[in-house]
Amino acid sequence: MGRVLTRIEEVHSASRAAWLWAAVLWVTVASCHEEAAQRRPNILLISLDSVRADTLSFDDAVATPHLAGLAQRGTVFRQAISGTSWTLPAHLQMMTGSPPLVHGVESADVIADPEGPLLAERLSADGYRTLGFYTGGYLSPSFGFARGFDRYVAVGPEDAVSSSGEGPEALVAGAISSGLVAAEVDQLLHGLGDETPLFLFLHLYDPHYDYVPPPPWDQHFDPDYAGSMDGRNFYYNLDIWDESLSPPRRVNDRDLEHIVALYRGEVSWTDQNIGRVLEALERVGRLEDTLVIVTADHGEEFFEHEGRGHRHTLFDELIHVPLLIVPPGGGAPRSVEQQVSLSDIAPTILDFAGGAAPPSMYGRSLRAALNGDAIAARPVVSSLYRASVNRRGDVFHRMTQSVRTEDWKLIRTLIVSPNGKLRVPEAVWFDLRADPAERVGVDDPEDPRLVQAWELFERETAALRAHWEAQAHAPDESRVTDARQELQAQLRALGYVDPDEGLEGHAILARPWGLAPVPAVGLDQVAASRQRAAGRNR
Question: Pseudo-torsion of CA 428, 434, 439, 445, nearest 10°?
């Protein structure tokens, strides 16, 4: 009996020890999870220049294997919308968390508002090491982009000549951005050596015209092409577009198909270098604990609406962009159909970094969607400002605006003439469900669909205006810059087209509405503009 009692005590003692060990282990694991939850993640924000949502869907393992693999750990937002169709205002949208109508940088003579915090400034203040790599032109520090970055490095033709031995023309024609950026990141990561959380911003330029991907990507999507068309000098090639002719499009369908294949090759080549960046993060043990966001500033038009390039219209081939968000540690692959905006990127990053978005940011965090929770779809207002001068030196101000929901889009054009009169020559409503290519529009100002869309449009712009008015702003005159003139040579070398060239000496900043969102516009102004146009055409 004594032996039995002794054995029972031994078993009880062993069980108690096992329980205590399990308890200690549970506490340790829970503590590690809590510590991991409190530990701020690294952040990798990749912006691909000029990439359409239908070109980068994140599910094509042949065209973009690294991004397709990355998407297996994250959430793809199928309806992400840019606030414009060109580089400068779209990237400031990412950095300010607000659309161009709010941040006000809609032409290249304006800098970011010094009174409004940028994403890198917030992260730097919170203890992040902030590093940015960009390819010249419209991401220049001259516009305010370097604010908050510990290092903000240009990687482009002039900057790469000394290290590569190649001249600017060769670099522009080939891989001037992605490969160089990947190499810079690899070298930089090996030299960090501590656990300070990292914010890494990469602007990868290769998909922007000209389209000259290196082998084998130059034949990857059109191996049987036997013609003479290539992707060099895309915007100025008279065999593609000749402004003096009517219609100006000169390229035939087969040659255009080849140009698009070269464009896709640039995207695929860029994917290869994104893979190199991810591998570099993994080698130094930082990838697992990194929030990864991949998006684009705008898309590209290949004659879907009789034009080429970008910065001309607000059709979906230009403002519908890819967006993938992978949380630290990865997650279940998800696809979100609710409409979101580039304005949502900065608030999402700050949410993961442990800080609240400042009141100046108009966007919202998308973190809940990464957990599988439903998020509300929101209308997105996009805009495109242009100035032009006639032979007498009179400056006309033109604003193209759109409001988009998941079901429809309304695009309108506002023009302010030199005498200060506002007219609305065009307002067109599109049914995106029945007509996703936006080919058949409704332009009757009495059509109830257009009327209802216009009312929502005005409510959305009123909300943007109220948000702008609630923030502190630097005086308009303090935001003037001559950066565009300083960057002209570099912009041309990169293939950029400057539609404001020739406006030197004219006060482009002197918009009738200033840098605030445009004032309210009545639908009756559409009818009035149409009546005036009809009278002139009699």
Answer: -20
Domain span(s) for CATH 3.40.720.10 in the chain: 43-150+178-211+261-378
- Closest residue by Cα to residue 258 from 290, 293, 218: 218
Instruction: Give the separation between CA 384 and CA 314, rounded to whole angstroms.
Output: 8
Long-range contacts of 396-403 (CB under 8 A, 24+ apart): 397/511, 397/512, 399/518, 400/313, 400/314, 401/101, 401/314, 401/457, 401/461, 401/518, 402/314, 402/319, 403/379, 403/453, 403/456, 403/457, 403/460
DSSP line for 144-198: TTTTT-SEEEE-SHHHHHHHH---HHHHHHS-SSHHHHHHHHHHHHHTT-S---E
pTM of full prediction above 0.85: yes
Helices (H) and strands (E) in the chain, counts: 16, 17
Residue found by looking up tokens 């000259």 in the block: 212
> Cα 440 from chain centroid?
27
User: What letter does residue 97 receive in the DSSP assignment?
Assistant: S
Give the integer Cα–Cα distance in Å for 352 and 42: 9
**Which of 3.30.160.20, 3.40.720.10, 3.90.930.12, 3.90.76.10 would CATH assign to domain 43-150+178-211+261-378?**
3.40.720.10
Judge whether 483 and 108 are in contact, CB under 8 Å: yes
Can you give the pLDDT at residue 161? 32
Give pLDDT < 70 ranges for the chain.
1-38, 156-176, 495-509, 527, 531-538
pLDDT of 526: 82
Are 388 and 395 in contact by the 8 Å Cβ rule? The answer is yes
The Cβ of residue 414 has, within 10 Å, a number of other Cβ atoms equal to 24
Centroid of chain to Cα 157: 22
Fill in the DSSP letter of residue 349.
Answer: H
| 78's tokens | 């199928």
Token representation of residue 251: 């390229």
Distances, alpha carbon 293 to alpha carbons 177, 255, 332, 385, 509, in Å: 18, 34, 15, 28, 33
Task: Give CA separation, 373 vs 74, 292, 332, 338, 380, in Å.
Answer: 14, 19, 12, 11, 21
Quote the distance between the C-alpha of residue 480 and its chain's center.
24
